[in-house]
Sequence to fold (248 residues):
Amino acid sequence: MEIEFSDKFIRALKNAKRVVVSTGAGVSAESGVSTFRGEDGLWKKFKPEELATYEAFEKNPKLVWEWYQHRRDIINKIKPNPGHYAIVEMARYFKRFHLVTQNVDDLHREAGSNDIIELHGNIKRNRCINCGTLNYEVEFEQIPPRCVCGGKLRPDVIWFGELLPLEALERAEDASKTCDLFFVIGTSGVVQPAASFPIIATRQGAFVVEINIEPTELTFVANEHFHGKSGEILPLIVDKIKTIKEKI
Ligand code: OAD
Fold:
């Protein structure tokens, strides 16, 4: 695959010092993680209100825990793809770089990205609803499993109707307001507040680049839209960056 990059895109890459990369489920699709919407999306097969709400957890903790353990089993077997690795490499060429993700699959960290702003939590982590302690190991002696304090443990992901972690939200907003180049990759752009970040960035004058296999709700804000798979397009963009920028 080859891409003829436009002059405006190359200029934006050359001039950029403060970059935000914002990712959604599409970035992990080539690793074998299901997206949420679209034909084979998880929310086509399952009802979010039965699996991904606090009410569902209270009503049927066994079902909720089984579903998350099933997703964990899938995620534990898969590996990052070239898109994840390209983002790790990209970070080395810009003075300031923020990676914001809606994904809970931990694949960015596994690929080598650090300081990831996780908007929707992390499926590998658990949180006590009583004392807030985070941990990665669960003993299923009872359902829901319990923290040492006796409180119920839940997966540390954001469920429908819940607020995002404040620190992650503030960092993502701040990075979006002050960046000069914003990549929005593999998200349908329908879930707030993540969908508002490229709009915030464009209002502040940032150059917005979208990578997706189809047009989305956010295509209208993009200065450049790359139509295709992130695992194929991102490595080509990073190859281009290497020819025009020095490592920081
Ligand atoms: P969606 O499933 O809504 O959207 C996935 C997007 O990825 C779509 O626009 C696809 O066209 C695109 N896509 C698929 N494969 C791709 C590929 N190989 N390369 C590039 N793009 C590709 O997923 P999100 O937008 O991430 O929330 O969904 C946002 C949130 O909704 C999720 O974080 C989740 C869900 O409810 C929580 O769990 C809180």
